[in-house]
Amino acid sequence: MILHQCPEGDATGAEIAACTVWEGPLYAVDATGGAGWLPVLDAAHAAGESLLLPDFGAAVMRSQAWQSQEVTKLPGDVFRLKACQE
After folding, report:
1. In total, how many domains does the chain have?
2. 17 near 63, Cβ under 8 Å?
3. Domain span at residue 83?
4. How many CB atoms lie within 10 A of CB 76?
5. Where does the source fall among the domains of life (predicted)?
6. Any residues with CB less than 8 A from the CB of 26 and at least 6 apart, and which?
7. Residue 8 lies inside a defined structural domain of this protein
8. What is the C-alpha to C-alpha distance for residues 2 and 32, in angstroms, rounded to an integer?
9. Which of 9, 39, 45, 50 is the most buried (most CB within 10 A)?
């Protein structure tokens, strides 16, 4: 779930719905282009090359952030990982 300018503290369901930009599954994409669930934190599982947020760009275009021009460049749905942070 990706939120934009939600109220702090206790918020109603309607307030959360109003500030929700995107909600959905998050996938890891490997070097061969295969997509799957994010691996659990385990040394035996390598991190994916990219992250896929299906329909994220379209959701941003429908969001209040886009309507108010706080966001002026649409993102894609795939984000390449540059580094890991522990």
Report:
1. 1
2. no
3. 25-86
4. 10
5. Bacteria
6. 38, 51, 52, 53
7. no
8. 27
9. 50
